[in-house]
Structure formats: structure tokens, C-alpha cells
Design goal:
It is a single chain. The protein is α+β, with helices and mostly antiparallel strands. The protein has a single domain (27-134), classed as Immunoglobulin-like. Helix content is 26%, strand content 37%. It has three helices and nine strands, in the order H-E-E-E-E-E-H-E-E-E-H-E. The chain has a five-stranded mixed β-sheet, covered by helices on one side. A four-stranded mixed β-sheet has the order 2-1-4-7. A hairpin with a 4-residue loop joins strand 1 (30-36) and strand 2. The longest helix has 24 residues, at 3-26. The radius of gyration is 19 Å and the shape is globular.
């Protein structure tokens, strides 16, 4: 194949890939319900595709407040001290009132494994930890 044809094919593939990514981001968010019950997340493991909006519907069935903080290990290391009482300005940091409900939409750009944890005092040690696998 001629060099100019290879370049044209490569450019066409790049355009197609960027269009597919843009279309995936514009798609209706996938909705995932996570219930908080007896200071635990149900389900405790979730799989989602990368590049697609995901709306987490967080339902707190407990009579106490909780958090849903999702990130990598460095992210969680920064939050373990409980330096923020409430979250909500960032979609990866959500506070859920007792018997309340919250929603947050995120797009994960690449395959990875993250954890979602409640960092209120002793909640992580009690087991309020879940795993998100982005495929």
C-alpha cells in the first residue's frame, strides 16, 4: 500500500475512534443502584465499561450518615483522616444523609480498578468498602 494511503487509513481510524468515544460520552448514563445497609455497600463489587457515563444511585437505608468516595489508593490515603465533613461538590465524593438518597455521575476514561469507601470514623474498618472494576 502506498504511504499516502496508509496515512489516510490511519487518519480515518483515528477519526472513527474519537467519534466513537464522543458518542459513548454522550450516551445515556448507565444507572447503578448501591444500597447502604448495616454499614455496608450492596453490591460490594461492580463492573462498568470505560468511556461511558455511569450514574451511581446511592440509597442509605441506615439511620446514620455515610459517604461514597471512589478513587485509587492515593485518593483514599488523602481521605482517611476525615478532613472534610461533607462532600458533594465533586462527583467522586458524595455524602449521603441518614435514610437519604444521592446520585452522582462519573465517566472513567480507561480500564482500572478503584475502590469506594466510607471514610467516616471506623466505617472503613467495619467493612464499608467496595470495588469498582472499569473494563
Amino acid at each position: 500500500m502506498c504511504t499516502w494511503r496508509r496515512v489516510a487509513v490511519a487518519i480515518s481510524l483515528l477519526i472513527a475512534a474519537s467519534t466513537a468515544t464522543a458518542c459513548a460520552r454522550d450516551a445515556e448514563p448507565q444507572r447503578i443502584e448501591i444500597r447502604i445497609h448495616h454499614s455496608g455497600f450492596e453490591p460490594a463489587e461492580i463492573r462498568v465499561p470505560h468511556g461511558v457515563p455511569v450514574t451511581f444511585v446511592l440509597i442509605n437505608e441506615d439511620p446514620i450518615d455515610h459517604e461514597f468516595l471512589i478513587g485509587d489508593e492515593a485518593f483514599h490515603a488523602r481521605h482517611r483522616d476525615g478532613t472534610e465533613l461533607h462532600h458533594g461538590a465533586r462527583p467522586e465524593e458524595v455524602s449521603i444523609a441518614a435514610l437519604g438518597k444521592a446520585e452522582s455521575t462519573l465517566v472513567f476514561d480507561e480500564p482500572t480498578t478503584l475502590r469506594y469507601i466510607c471514610h467516616l470514623p471506623r466505617h472503613e474498618a467495619y467493612g464499608m468498602v467496595g470495588t469498582l472494576r472499569v473494563t
